[in-house]
Automatic annotation (TrEMBL):
The lineage of its organism: Eukaryota, Metazoa, Chordata, Craniata, Vertebrata. InterPro entries: ARM-type_fold, DAD_dom, FH2_Formin, FH2_Formin_sf, FH3_dom, Formin_Homology. Residues 116-238, 577-625, 639-669 are annotated as: Disordered. This is Uncharacterized protein. Residues 479-506 form a coiled coil. Keywords: Coiled coil. Pfam families: Drf_FH3, FH2. PANTHER family: DISHEVELED-ASSOCIATED ACTIVATOR OF MORPHOGENESIS 1, FORMIN HOMOLOGY 2 FAMILY MEMBER. GO terms for molecular function: actin binding. The keyword Transmembrane helix does not apply. The keyword Lipoprotein does not apply. Residues 116-135, 581-608, 658-669 have a biased composition (Basic and acidic residues). Residues 164-194 have a biased composition (Low complexity). Residues 195-220 have a biased composition (Pro residues).
Length: 669
């Protein structure tokens, strides 16, 4: 009675007809009504979200989790102002006021942490500015601005490097030894600089082409005693990169390269022709073709040429493919950069385009070359400029991979779930199908009856369409591929989480929404992936039971093989059913046709007999009438009765002929 009174009071208070406290739906609607448009609504939604993540299976310590949550809420509701609880089973050392006070302190700590994070970011920015003012250490290449033509560029501390004729000579860190170092090798080919002594502690900054483009100087700053310093002529203009994997100098011993001397080759090479052929400045020419295409020498005289200089450093085929990709994207470099920083909130980058962009991620060698020519940014070709702009984004490749994984995650989960569900349902169907069991009993009986010898007297054999609807789909599931897809999904999720942790630790640029967007995605994706993993574990367990149930070895039997047997059996069974149905229909049709023919034959016989009987009846009636007429006339008493019969036949024939003739009436006008 008290419970009913309380429910009626609640209903009256909230203007509802009645609230059934045993109904979860009605109670939830009531709470939602109270929490709507309040400041506590986000926390209410957070409680619901965390309840979704709590264990929900019937095994293990699931009940204890929910019991703990129930008791905590009870303490929050039942504790009075003095901290006492009328319930006999309270939680030990649990005081609501203390917890609330701790939450208030936690908010204060959170504010202090935010201030500390802001100060840390400011300190990091100042540190970056400070580092930019320091000279590059270790012989790093620092290209000068276009207006400068001196040999190098020095930082805020230390003297500038010695001048030389090179336009883009590298600059080394300031040190006491560098003050006495000789000038770097000339940039123009034709004059070789003297090689330094191997024992000299001083280090000459390497020229840009001395060790391949973008390669660092030898470790330690000293060349090995067995390796002679190469004197390589330098081109006057930038050349295309020559792709190779450079062999470390400490690994040259015992190789063919110890006996190779390329210095002799430079004496016979036409360096000017090589520089002209492999120049990084591509010349695009449009000619007016003459009638005879074979006369190549006359093309320059008969046609006009239009030359456009572009700086192209990237490999030609790769640059061409990248140019095709950029033309399909139809976005500027700034728009693509903004889309990547904001995790494509405007949906400008389709999934297939992101997949192609991952194939054109700038490599370290590309970045080093582009950095050397960044002062010529306006003259760069479209692919080169795209590579340069994208390389300016911190962790560009990881961001791109995270964005692609985010866009493909829902699609991949949607592809995996039907396979797992088909495996689960098919295992349940073959385990619990009564019709299949009855069918197997019939087949077993037939087999034991028909087989003799060792194949007969069987108690079972290894291996109703309506009860096994998911078997055809399960027959397509390959467990190895399914587990591989799950593993790839797990590793991809971990990679995104790792990148999220990295981005959280560094200061965020303006417009960078990676942390906020990916944090929300990880929360949802982790729950979805956990659900798929639980479903797969359940499917594996059911599949193992099903395989053992039919006398097979789970370690040797895969789902596609196991359910493929059932699928083939069901198809054969369906075909046999259809064949039997066709036979039954043909038999029924033949029986119906035979019955109709018999009925038709019987009906015709009846009609024939009826016509015959009718004809006999008319003849008898006529003779009787003739006899009465003869009695009246007295002819019957004559001895010659044949005359009377002849007269009767004549009358009948006349009557018949008159009935066949068409009466004609003659009209006289």
């Amino acid at each position: 009675m008290l419970r009913n009174d309380d429910e009626l009071a609640l209903a009256k208070r909230f203007e509802a007809v009645h609230i059934d406290t045993k109904s979860a739906t009605q109670v939830f609607d009531l709470i939602r009504k109270r929490m709507n448009h309040t400041e506590a609504h986000p926390h209410f939604m957070s409680v619901l979200h965390h309840c979704l993540l709590m264990p929900h299976k019937r095994s293990g310590n699931t009940v204890q989790y929910w019991l703990l949550l129930d008791r905590i809420v009870q303490q929050m509701v039942l504790q009075n102002d003095k901290g006492h609880d009328p319930d006999a089973t309270p939680l030990e050392n649990f005081n609501v006021k203390n917890v609330v006070r701790m939450l208030v302190n936690e908010n204060e700590v959170k504010q202090w942490k935010e201030q500390a994070e802001t100060m840390r970011k400011e300190h990091h920015e100042l540190q970056q500015k400070f580092d930019k003012k320091e000279p590059a250490a270790g012989g790093a290449d620092v290209p000068p601005p276009p207006a400068q033509h001196q040999a190098g560029q020095h930082g805020s501390w230390g003297p500038p490097s010695a001048p030389g004729p090179s336009r883009r000579a590298p600059v080394s860190a300031p040190s006491a030894q560098l003050r006495d170092s000789p000038p770097s090798s000339p940039a123009s080919g034709g004059h070789d600089a003297p090689a330094p002594s191997p024992a000299s502690p001083r280090r000459t900054p390497p020229s840009p082409g001395a060790h391949g483009p973008g390669d660092p100087p030898p470790p330690g700053g000293l060349l090995g005693s067995s390796v002679k310093k190469k004197n390589i002529p330098q081109p006057s203009n930038a050349l295309k990169s020559f792709n190779w994997n450079k062999l470390a100098e400490n690994k040259l011993e015992g190789t063919v390269w110890m006996d190779v001397d390329d210095a002799k080759v430079f004496k016979v090479l036409d360096l000017q022709d090589i520089e002209k052929t492999f120049s990084a400045y591509q010349r695009q020419q449009d000619f007016f073709m003459v009638n005879n295409s074979k006369q190549k020498e006359a093309e320059d005289e008969t046609g006009s040429t239009r030359k456009v200089k572009e700086l192209s450093i990237i490999d030609g085929r790769r640059a061409q493919n990248c140019n095709i990709l950029l033309s399909r994207l139809k976005l500027s470099n700034e728009e693509m950069k903004r889309a990547i920083l904001t995790m494509d909130e405007q949906e400008d980058l389709p999934k297939d385009m992101l997949e192609q962009m991952l194939k054109f991620v700038p490599e370290k060698s590309d970045v080093d070359l582009l950095e050397e020519h960044k002062h010529e940014l306006e003259r760069m070709a479209k692919p080169d400029r795209f590579f340069y702009e994208m390389s300016r984004i911190n962790h560009y490749q990881q961001r791109l991979q995270s964005l692609y994984f985010k866009k493909k995650f829902a699609e991949r989960v949607a592809e995996l779930k039907p396979k797992v569900e088909a495996l689960t349902k098919a295992s349940k169907e073959v385990l619990h199908s009564r019709n299949l069991k009855q069918l197997l009993e019939v087949v077993l009986a037939f087999g034991n009856y028909m087989n003799k010898g060792q194949r007969g007297n069987a108690y079972g054999f290894k291996h109703r369409q309506d009860d096994l609807q998911c078997v055809p789909e399960a027959a397509k599931v390959n467990m190895t591929e399914l587990e591989k897809d799950i593993t790839n999904l797990r590793s991809g999720l971990k990679s995104v989480e790792s990148e999220l942790e990295f981005q959280k630790k560094r200061p965020q640029e303006a417009g960078d929404k990676f942390v906020s967007v990916v944090s929300q995605f990880i929360a949802v994706a982790s729950f979805s992936f956990s659900d798929v993993e639980d479903s797969l574990a359940e499917a594996k367990e059911l599949f193992t039971r099903a395989v053992k149930h039919f006398g097979e070895d789970p370690s040797k039997m895969q789902p596609d093989e196991f359910f493929g047997i059932f699928d083939q059996f069901l198809q054969s069974f369906s075909e046999a059913q259809q064949e039997n149905e066709n036979i039954r229909k043909r038999k029924e049709e033949e029986e119906r046709r035979a019955k109709m023919e018999a009925q038709l034959k019987e009906q015709r016989e009846k009609e024939r007999k009826a016509r015959k009987a009718k004809a006999n009846g008319e003849d008898d009636g006529g003779e009787f009438d003739d006899l009465v007429s003869a009695l009246r006339s007295g002819e019957v008493f004559d001895k010659d009765l044949s005359k009377m019969k002849r007269n009767r036949k004549r009358i009948n024939s006349q009557t018949t002929d008159s009935g066949r003739e068409r009466p004609v009436t003659k009209l006289n006008f």
